[in-house]
Design brief:
Order of helices and strands: HEHEHEHHHEEHEHEHEHEEHHEHH
Low-confidence stretches: 1-22
Number of helices: 14
Largest sheet: 6 strands, mixed
Helix content: 40-55%
Oligomer: single chain
Length: about 375
């Protein structure tokens, strides 16, 4: 008899538990991205959607939208804040008009002249002060009601595509070059390089008309879809204007704050998993695209002149110094400087080791520059 009542108790408990789980509140998260759905980065965000739904056991249902589907990309910050959409993806430096410190989070030019590399900055976000400062930036200084996570390491972005081989910075400075707007363009101008800014879709037509001699976008995996190789054949992979390029994901703060603790934890894990996804995808997709560009389209990988690096880093420090009187800008800059002093001595030697290994393998013919 005792066994009967015990069995009945177990059955009732299981039925009640299923009932509670079935009645658990559902949450809809609508994320407007700044990418076309063919982009490699949009595909990474599709995996973020899978993580969020899987780890939440479908209590969070995610709708993902490509660039412009709901709002224009520059409107993403305010739209997430106002609840027009409750999730978004963009880059903090796109919000630099709200406060100039935005550039330090997603695209610090030349590693701020500090020697920071992209992995070090990602570690600053996840192991240092980065995420706390990022959310202070948006909530207190940009005045938007959202939570932010840095999840899409996209760099290093190449210097760009040119109409011929250049051996010195003085020669490069004669080229009419499409640069990103804002601080990167300011740094190029400080170096004496004539730059213009235009949307991505206008770059190839402008090159075909001879309006520009050179231009840049994101990297091999995205550049090949833009058709840059149809007008330019000289590809300079080593550049500093966006040597660090990091995209964010945003969630409306009121919506996020109302979530139970376990779903907040599921979001945190999903965001961190997306960082790993993107780092691995960068290697795979960009390498495959570069091989196609060289083998099938006659693109030549060029070496950026050695003098470019110290010149750009010095110019970057000079431009950024103009913004240091702003207390929050200086707070972020100082935090990154402290992180650079901690991490650069190690990262420089680690990165140098891998460079020497690759150079040796290519020097003895074990690996080639995708030559047939």
């Amino acid at each position: 008899m005792k066994r009967f009542f015990l069995s009945m108790f177990v059955v009732v408990f299981m039925v009640a538990s299923v009932g509670v789980a079935g009645a658990a509140q559902k949450y809809e998260l609508k994320i407007q991205t700044a990418f076309a759905n063919a982009s490699m980065y949009y595909k990474t965000l599709e995996r973020l959607k899978q993580y969020l739904e899987g780890l939440s056991q479908n209590r969070i249902k995610v709708e993902l939208y490509p660039d412009g589907a709901v709002v224009k990309s520059p409107e993403i910050f305010d739209s997430v804040s106002q609840g027009i959409i409750n999730g978004g993806q963009c880059w903090t430096h796109w919000a630099s008009g709200k406060h100039p410190a935005g550039i330090l989070f997603s695209a610090p030019p030349g590693g701020n002249g500090m020697g920071l590399d992209q992995l070090s900055v990602m570690a600053w976000f996840w192991e240092g002060d980065g995420h706390a400062l990022l959310n202070e930036y948006f909530q207190q200084h940009a005045k938007v009601d959202l939570r932010a996570w840095a999840v899409l390491p996209m760099g290093p972005e190449p210097f760009g595509w040119f109409n011929k081989k250049y051996n010195t910075v003085a020669e490069i400075n004669k080229a009419k070059f499409r640069s990103p707007p804002g601080v990167p363009a300011e740094v190029f101008k400080e170096m004496g390089m004539p730059v213009v800014s235009m949307p991505g879709g206008d770059i190839v037509p402008a090159a075909q008309r001879g309006v520009i001699d050179a231009g840049e976008w994101i990297g091999p995996g995205e550049d090949i879809t833009m058709g840059f190789h149809t007008v330019w054949k000289h590809y300079y992979l080593q550049g500093l204007h966006q040597v660090i390029s990091i995209g964010d994901v945003y969630i409306n703060k009121k919506w996020y704050d109302a979530l139970p603790a376990d779903l907040k934890y599921a979001i945190e894990l999903s965001m961190k998993a997306t960082v790993t996804d993107q780092l691995l995808t960068n290697v795979s997709v960009n390498s495959k695209a570069l091989e196609i560009l060289v083998r099938d389209h006659g693109v030549t990988i060029e070496e950026t002149p050695a003098e470019y690096y110290p010149m750009y880093m010095a110019a970057a420090k000079k431009v950024l110094a103009k913004y240091l009187p702003d207390p929050f800008f200086k707070k972020v800059y100082d935090s990154q400087m402290a992180w650079a002093k901690l991490t650069v001595p190690y990262q420089m030697r680690a990165n140098g080791l891998y460079y020497q290994m690759g150079k040796t393998a290519m020097g003895d013919g074990t690996v080639t520059d995708y030559k047939k």
